[in-house]
Amino acid sequence: MPPRPPRRSPTQCGFSDLTGVDASPAMISRARRLHPAMRCAALDAPPATPYLDASFDAVLLFAVLTCIPGDEAQHRLSAELNRILKPGGILARKLTSA
Predict the structure, then answer these.
(1) In angstroms, rounded to a whole number, what is the distance separating the alpha carbons of residues 2 and 27?
(2) Contact indicator for 31, 37 with CB cutoff of 8 Å
(3) To 10 degrees, the CA torsion angle through 63, 69, 75, 76?
(4) Which of 58, 60, 82, 94 is close enough to 90 for a disulfide, judged by CB 3.0 to 4.6 Å?
(5) How many Å apart are CA 86 and CA 64, to the nearest integer?
(6) DSSP three-state, residue 26
(7) pLDDT tens across 5-34, in order?
(8) Is residue 74 very low, low, confident or very high in pLDDT (cuts 50, 70, 90)?
(9) In angstroms, rounded to a whole number, what is the distance separating the alpha carbons of residues 1 and 74?
(10) 0.90 cut: is pTM over it?
(11) Pairing between strand 39-42 and 19-22?
């Protein structure tokens, strides 16, 4: 039987440089308390981000699109995420918490 791979916490998922963003300053405060080593930023004017084009290898969204009313606002967020994602990068979306 092959050895089991080591278990990793969410902050040890193989990425060495993580950045968390949210439109809610309260959620950013909570993230900073729970993960003090992770960079976190509150967005001033969502969906715009302060990041350069093609600056992320992966973008992960968890139940974000379900919190954004209207197709147009969701399309603007998707366009922004595609802008900051490197070519060939990963965009993963989980639409609900179920």
Answers:
(1) 41
(2) no
(3) -100
(4) 58
(5) 21
(6) helix
(7) 444 434 445 566 788 888 889 999 999 999
(8) confident
(9) 46
(10) no
(11) parallel
